Amino acid sequence: MEEMHQVAIAAKDPAIGRQFSSQVSILSAMELIWNLCEILFIEVAPAGALLLHLLDWVRLHVCEVDSLLADVLGSENPSKHDSFWKLVTILVLQGRLDEARQMLSKEADASPSSAGMCRILGDLMRTMPVLSPGNTQTLTELELKWQHWHEECERHLQDSTFAASPHLESLCKIMLGDEAALLEQKELLNNWYHFLVTRLLYSHPTVKPIDLHLYAQSSLDLFLGGESSPEPLDNILLAAFEFDIHQVIKECSIALSNWWFVAHLTDLLDHCKLLQSHNLYFGSNMREFLLLEYASGLFAHHSLWQLGVDYFDYCPELGRVSLELHIERIPLSTEQKALKVLRICEQRQMTEQVRSICKILAMNAVRNNRLGSALSWSIRAKDAAFATLVSDRFLKDYCERGSFSDLDLIDNLGPAMMLSDRLTFLGKYREFHRFYGEKRLTDAASLLLSLMTSQIAPRSFWVILLIDALPLLEEKEVVFSAEQTYELMRCLEDFASRRPVWREPGVQRIQEDVENTKLEMLRLALARNLGRAIIKEGSLEGS
Amino acid sequence: MEEIYAKFVSQKISKTRWRPVPPGSLQTADTFAAGSWDNEENYVSLWSIGDFGNLDSDGGFEGDHQLLCDIRHHGDVMDLQFFDQERIVAASSTGCVTVFLHHPNNQTLSVSQQWTAAHYHTGPGSPSCGSAPCTGVVCNNPEIVTVGEDGRINLFRADHKEAVRTIDNADSSTLHAVTFLRTPEILTVNSIGQLKIWDFRKQGNEPSQILSLTGDRVPLHCVDRHPNQQHVVATGGQDGMLSIWDVRQGTMPVSLLKAHEAEMWEVHFHPSNPDHLFTCSEDGSLWHWDASTDVPEKSSLFNQGGRNSTFLSHSISNQASVHQSLISSWLSTDPAKDRIEITSLLPSRTLSVNSLDVLGPCLVCGTDSEAIYVTKQLFS
Predict the structure, then answer these.
(1) Which PANTHER family does the record cross-reference, listed alphabetically (chain B) (predicted)?
(2) Domain assignment present for B98
(3) Residue B303 within any structural domain of the chain
(4) ipTM summary value
(5) Distance from CA of A165 to the nearest CA of B (A)
(6) Chain B residues inside the 8 Å CB shell of A303
(7) Which pTM was predicted?
(8) What is the count of structural domains for chain B?
């Protein structure tokens, strides 16, 4: 807040300077409200101590005094300074009587004529009974002593002890708690709550918390004097003095533009068990409602969504559900952001969200022809269906072009192959190609056979597999054993019998013819191979 | 213990890099660049950690880093490298690669050169030239190599308008990071857990070597080469695992070290003390790995220049040859036998630490909790 203040002062452009100043004033108002809530609701100060806390509160938020004090003390002749009496008055108004006394002693040194009066006033200041924190006085004792002191001040006033100096006289009146005198100092008091606290200090120092609001209301009325209407801040403070927590929260929500302040204040009060559970119509209590609102607001921000996650974590009833809904809708412009979102989901076991986000990313990757990325997303989500889709894409490419794209991916699938049947088939099929390329024909043959018999090959691919068997069958040496050949034949007949019969004329007929020819060739090759295999196995070296 | 200074900068930091000191000079690092991400307006900024003679009116702590200048950057800053003393190369999520020039006399940054469509998607489903994020950039004056989510590798030269060489579809998945091995060779890591070595002297679009793990294909996010031994490479993966590879030997890593609980975003060997390694991760921690523990009592076949090398016991690598003249302590470290000291450098857990850089005794890192941490006494 200090930085903003300095920036506001230093800003060259007056509009920006105003903007910063207004931000500073909002922040200081929030601090004011927060501190008051702390005093009244959380500390729950009893009578006596209450006033001390309120005095601290006022002193904290009116800071010009210190600079003025330094100013005056620093000057050569403090008592002749222009603002000397102003300073002393402010000190008395704030209840800083020791410092006021020091100032008076300077005045006494400077002008001997008023030395006597200053001394008397100084004594009065010194003897004013205050409740010190460690003191064991009871409240009634304090009350009695204070009453006694009050009467003494009254007596001095009536004796016109201070008649010679109007300043000292008005100081005495202030110390008596005379409302008219206090109202004269409106300018120095600056706002009605200062007036309230000063008034209480000098007329009802043992005020009880429940009576506070009466004095607050009357102070406000007196101070404003009918000239101006209360501002939102005044309403909030009044509600606080009335100990109406809900009203405070309501007024703050209306006055402030976002939920930050209210959410945190409510959370604090809830932790102090001060909020009775309000049953809002969707079942959660006010704290959770406000936190949810705040967190939703964070999610609407382009970069603060990561903080929103933590807030949702602390909402026991609706937090998780809200998080699930919000986290899917974060726009993912880069993979790195997606990874962070996924990590958040995985830490909270939100598998559905992981799956849906990975699916979106994988679809994008497929559209951009990044099949490796698509596969890695489906592996992360353990999404077998998508892995099948990617593998189908590869197989389709192979059918169309006769060769595989992205061999680096397929060759190095590793254990990820097990994710989906189709993927396993793809990996194994590629392995078959590799075996064939390396001339490891028996391995290739048995692999091919297992591919066909294990039922993981898609229907559409069977004809290709069968055709792939042809070159193996045509090899000089017998690659397939008799058993294997029988298996192949069975597969072939299986395939042929279940082949869809196309009824459309034209191109399909030609394709069908081509296929039929291929199958015929295959049958011939199989038969020949069977013969050779039986002979080979039947002969001496084969057994 | 080191003192770490933190400063909250109101933008999530994706990359931080020290400006290199001129070779042969005794200066320590005093300026670093930072790039932000995920904001509506992202910035590349330069910061200084020079000692200020007297505290200025900002009331910053002595040694606190101060902003020198910044410039708006379109898209997230995906990677950042210093090209030389004055120029910074930034890779953007819009697929654009920009070279910024720093003017020290008036402390401003300006755009010196830009390749706007360095990375893009072309596919049946995407509109022609949909942009793809550029994920990694590495510089070796005068060359700049970039890689992106489109699986493309670009070789640029400063002051040339077009790319000198482009390898389209170098990878079917996303390339996450790139580093130079020897000058004409680069090494890339991708999201299916493979390291690929590319040689620019060769024509053709095939890598000269592929290395990968045999187990799960965990995506690899970062890579760094040992400063003195160009065959030793460290990578960090999505499961937080740190792997050390010897690219001359086989296709499998030399050691696998279980490290962080979430993605490891960056790994760096210390440039002048390569026995020290630094990693940072999504789980909000930054670790300092110290493998320089001397083990004097173990005798070995080789005694190199005062530093004993520990005996070769690898759990994974089947390194048969013992005729190595220089053995890196990383390659020969068996995590079960020799101790690597690991210290966590950040005082408390934050959101993800996205980036780190080390130079001399100084370390800088940037996090998602909008803070930059700097320490100037790394080895105290």
Answers:
(1) NUCLEOPORIN NUP43
(2) yes
(3) no
(4) 0.84
(5) 44
(6) 11-12, 38-39
(7) 0.80
(8) 1
